[in-house]
């Protein structure tokens, strides 16, 4: 490890390690991409792929993200963008859960949906994409439906779950599982021009409050559909929330619901009924 550290110090320029030097270190020392990135960040050296992060995310925080583990539940419209952005952000371990295969109606909005992927598992496409995008990130594809019985096992070891589901029933199950294993949950939902985001911590019961009178299987998106832009916007807000939770920031949407109207270009924040208005 000392030799690797000395090599990285010698190869860094302006506190940055280029991808070419990172690959050379992997070959020279027989290390994985994750191990080289971890070593560089430990030394305060930033892999050059993250150089546009460093005025927003400190190098020490980048290391925290590398050591973080996040479950993305649902790999469709929201989930594809969430997976993509978490991988680009440098979150080192992703667990992606979705039982479905790509169909033609996914092509208008789902990031990993391509004509060549029709009939293929969504989680397999996510794994292939992340491996090509950021080799320091490990993605575990779980082609399973999350339920109350298998949920704790599927989410074992993660620090945070991101709700990218299209079923009220299943997202309430996810909320219950997160409560059981005591991890935060970043919720997102979309329908047509509209979406919403909130963050729930153990004990909050936020989703149970939001959906207490809406227990049908599918939400309003079943009627309104979803264009290409809505999942991209809401997923990005979810990833921003996930980043803050992982880095221990206090200014999250906890106890608050952010509603987005892209037709009127309005963002409206409300306190979740029955919840404290402040963290």
What do these coordinates show?
Helices cover 39% and strands 18% of the residues. The protein has 11 helices and 10 strands. The strands form 2 sheets. Strands 5-4-3-6-7-8-9-10 form an 8-stranded mixed beta sheet, sandwiched between helices. The chain has a two-stranded parallel ribbon with strand order 1-2. The chain is globular and about 60 Å long. The mean pLDDT is 94. GO terms for molecular function: tRNA threonylcarbamoyladenosine dehydratase; ubiquitin-like modifier activating enzyme activity. Pfam families: ThiF. It comes from Geoanaerobacter pelophilus.
* Strand percent estimate: 15-25%
CATH class of the largest domain: Alpha Beta
Number of helices: 11
Estimate the mean pLDDT confidence: 94
CATH architecture of the largest domain: 3-Layer(aba) Sandwich
| Number of structurally distinct domains | 2
Number of strands: 10
How would a textbook summarize the main sheet? 8 strands, mixed
| Morphology | globular
Question: What would you give as the CATH superfamily of the largest domain?
Answer: NAD(P)-binding Rossmann-like Domain
Percentage of helical residues?
25-40%
Low-pLDDT residue spans: none
Report the order of strands and helices. Answer: HEHHEHEHEHEHEHEEHHHEE
